[in-house]
Amino acid sequence: MKNITAFFLYLILPLTTYCQQLVSNNDSATFTNFSWQNEHIAKGVVWRSGHFNSLFNSKQFISILEIDLSKRNKKLGIVALPQQLEHTSTLARHAKALAAINGGFFHMKNGGAVNYIKVKGKVITYSKSKGTHANAFFAFDRKKTIITSDSVAATALPNVMLAGPLLLENNRTVSLADNAFNKNRHPRTGVGLAGNKLYLITVDGRNSMSQGFSLAEFTNIFRWLGCTDAMNLDGGGSTAMYIEGKGIVNHPSDNKKFDHQGERKVANIIYIKK
């Protein structure tokens, strides 16, 4: 019996791998050939949005900010509250931002980030625990922007946000832990780098109109955009994208409706200055 079982596994496993690859290739083609709604919101900044009827066998709504760093690297910023919480849209408006997304993980009760954040050379919060997700740094100065697992390289820069998990590093897919946070579908927020292009991405979820991504699925999106480095940020009910003059353009899930009103208060954002 063991020999028969082993024989069938020998036959089935290659077929399973082939089917998974076929599905991945089909999804890649669906994503690449999709007719996005594109809008140039400023020099070097393009906003794309798309509602997929079937991506990873599910409905998905994706919002992408594509930023040309050769034109906008000096315009990146972080807003971080040391103890308070506020809506992404409110923080963005106070910063006079052109566009913004929610940032890293935070204390929902007491406010403030749970991980290291530095803004303009000043540390706003230190990591209060090791955490299971925070293994990636988004960091920048006026000349360069990086996504890395190297804390020394990251913290040498004046603007740093620790979050995660890391998804891509040096064009390699990073192995993810086998846990519910990574495997289950949720709304997601993330950042990726492809040469001189920075991608800020939100994916809506927890709704029949958009089911959200696992982190493996989210990683594929960054790969298909040509990113060599990418990381996850705080998602779930925190996921939000703001654009000046439009407000929140994705569909935050906290009000359990597929509209733009269900924004959750957060502790920090990544934004693009005017």
Automatic annotation (TrEMBL):
Keywords: Glycosidase, Hydrolase. PANTHER family: N-ACETYLGLUCOSAMINE-1-PHOSPHODIESTER ALPHA-N-ACETYLGLUCOSAMINIDASE. This is Phosphodiester glycosidase family protein. Residues 96-272 form the Phosphodiester glycosidase domain. Pfam families: NAGPA. It comes from the Bacteria. The keyword Transferase does not apply. One of its GO terms (molecular function) is hydrolase activity, acting on glycosyl bonds. It comes from Sphingobacterium thermophilum.
